[in-house]
Amino acid sequence: xxxxxQSLSYLAASPGESVSISCKASKSISNYLAWYQQKPGEAxxxxxxxxxxxxxxxxxxxxxxxxxxxxxxxxxSLEPEDFGLYYCQQYYEKPLTFGSxxxxxxx
Amino acid sequence: xxxLVESGGGLVQPGxxxxxxxxxxxxxxxxxxxxxxxxAPGKGLEWVASISSSSSYIYYADTVKGRFTISRDNxxxxxxxxxTSLRSEDTAxxxxxxxxxxxxWFAYWxxxxxxxxxx
Lengths: 107, 119
Description:
The structure holds 2 protein chains of 2 kinds. Chain A has strands spanning 4-5, 10-13, 19-25, 33-38, 45-49, 53-54, 62-67, 70-75, 84-90, 97-98, 102-106. Chain A is mainly beta. In chain A, 0% of the residues lie in helices and 49% in strands. Chain B has strands spanning 3-7, 10-12, 18-25, 34-39, 45-51, 58-60, 68-73, 78-83, 92-99, 106-109, 113-117. In chain B, the strands form 2 sheets. In chain B, strands 2, 4, 5, 6, 9, 10 and 11 form a 7-stranded mixed beta sheet that branches. In chain B, strands 1-3-8-7 form a 4-stranded antiparallel beta sheet, with no helix packed on it. In chain B, a hairpin with a 4-residue loop joins strand 7 (68-73) and strand 8 (78-83). Chains A and B meet through strand 5 and strand 10 of A and strand 5 and strand 10 of B.
């Protein structure tokens, strides 16, 4: 199975700052990577797929980069609504697997 | 607006069965693959099963293979997960999710239904 590692389980930042969340795959997954956001009481929301393609409705301050084994989700100029949990997911092969999540909190 | 509404969760004893449903609306259900994903309390996300749009292709996680059955009724816009021989480790919030238009990402998620396996 492809193991997905999000090394930071917790990240604190202030509105207006930029942050990067990393995700590492245990083997090369090309760009078969998606990013999701979860906020309390809300359904999971797809932000990015194919490593860097923004899902319709995802604000342009979000960007995804990387290929192979190392990926990054970057959020420029944080807005209050950006705080929550972020997960990466590989879909290069089954079983489909997720990172353990990074909680982005307000500093 | 895409909506996925899960139902059927509850408290069940180990070894018993339970069937989850997911009612879809806001898109042409018969055109998309669907998935079940679960999240145990305080834990991360675990993909459980996938089914293609016409039910031709079905995949399971090893942890549920042989015990869970994913199915769908395109006439009713409904996805199912039949769970048998339930174990305490199956306790989780179960989400249904729609496949991406051209890849195995999860484009839309429901809010989940809670399954608790306990005596």
